[in-house]
């Protein structure tokens, strides 16, 4: 949620509840007006399987999966999530689904438990993009 709000408003808010939201946002990219619809789902709700997660996957055209570099569990769940997404999306039309893995909280390097190299290697092995960012900065 912090990363989504930072993208939408350019502000950082550190505390969030455990709710999902759908945001719409216009942005000009390379002279073209782009309309983003962002379905922001907290990690606790991403853990559920079944129709809710399937609905989210079918709704989306691309995916940004965010983990905390300070939380190994949030990183470890990514391969399963990505395999689930790819099976649901790529199985239908054989097109590669755009997925980006984002390691957040780069500013908390002193609390890091997931290295940048681990993130890059995971993204490479799963054919995803990779970035490390700090929503706070």
Number of strands: 5
Question: Could you say which structural class the secondary elements and strand pairing correspond to?
Answer: alpha/beta
Strand content: 15-25%
Output the radius of gyration. Answer: 15 Å
Biggest β-sheet: strands ordered side by side in the sheet = 3-4-5
Helix percent reads 25-40%
Major β-sheet, in short? 3 strands, parallel
What's the tally of helices? 6
Mean pLDDT equals: 84
Catalytic activity: GTP + H2O = GDP + phosphate + H(+)
Family: Belongs to the small GTPase superfamily. Ras family.
Protein name: small monomeric GTPase
GO molecular function, one term: GTP binding
Task: Write a structural description.
The protein has 137 residues and is of the alpha/beta class. It has a single domain (1-132), classed as P-loop containing nucleotide triphosphate hydrolases (Rossmann fold). Helices cover 38% and strands 25% of the residues. It contains six helices and five strands; from the N terminus they run H-E-E-H-H-E-H-H-E-H-E. Strands 3-4-5 form a three-stranded parallel β-sheet. Strands 1-2 form a two-stranded antiparallel ribbon. The two termini are 15 Å apart.
